[in-house]
Amino acid sequence: MQSETEATRREYDRLAPVYDRRWRNYVDVTLEAVVRSVSLQGHERILDIASGTGELERLLLARLPSLQIVGTDISLGMLRQASAKKEDQKAVWVQAEAAHLPFADHSFDYALCANSFHYFRRPLAALQEAHRVLRPQGRLILIDWCDDYLTCRLCGVWLRLTDPAFCQTYTLQACRSLLEQAGFQVLQTDHFRVRWIWGMMGFVCCPIETGQGRSNRTT
Question: Residue 188, exposed/middle/buried by CB under 10 A (0-12, 13-18, 19+)?
Fold first, then answer.
């Protein structure tokens, strides 16, 4: 695991025991937005990138227990919190960086990424990895903070000074550009707020084929 991710790993190992309690309202609202964005039959194979304490897995498996879900995170502390939850014992947990996913090409029907993109040191590489592991008819759902909101821009300034794990937030257009560079077609976009401070953006995307036998992975 690359050294540039160590600040994020350490910070979330530290926060893991209190994360759900501290961020309950924010997590509930944003993850419900993810759930609304996916249309599931119950048999799909899902990858949750930067899965944290497994709250998204808990929500999905409570509704559709036959889903096959793999959650990845660089923080072992967060993964331990996730694996201790009753519903989440049906999921598989893997410690991995978003820019280096240890899965074969075309392995998943959905890739989900909620509330974590602003911590990725290599955002384009992470999106390219999501593209690589998705099946041709798969979907990427991405939800994150949005710099189209003044409150998020101000929060980003503060976090750059105080949080060693924080990297960058994006406008909807800037994030859309990254998604398109990574080989995705953006099917749907959304803006919404969580309370007064967090302005959010959401994307539903599908992978564009990059050529038969060609991997979209960066090294």
Answer: exposed
- 96: domain range? 3-207
pTM: 0.90
Cα–Cα distance for residue pair 170/28, rounded to 1 Å: 22
The total of structural domains in the chain comes to: 1
Q: Is 92 part of a structural domain of the chain?
A: yes
The answer to whether 69 and 90 are in contact (CB under 8 A) is yes
* Residue 216 in domain: no
pLDDT on residue 89: 87
Local structure of 11: helix, strand or coil: helix
Chain centre distance of CA 150: 23
Q: Give pLDDT tens digits for 156-206.
A: 888 888 887 888 999 999 999 999 999 999 999 999 888 777 889 999 999
| Residue 103: CATH number of its domain | 3.40.50.150
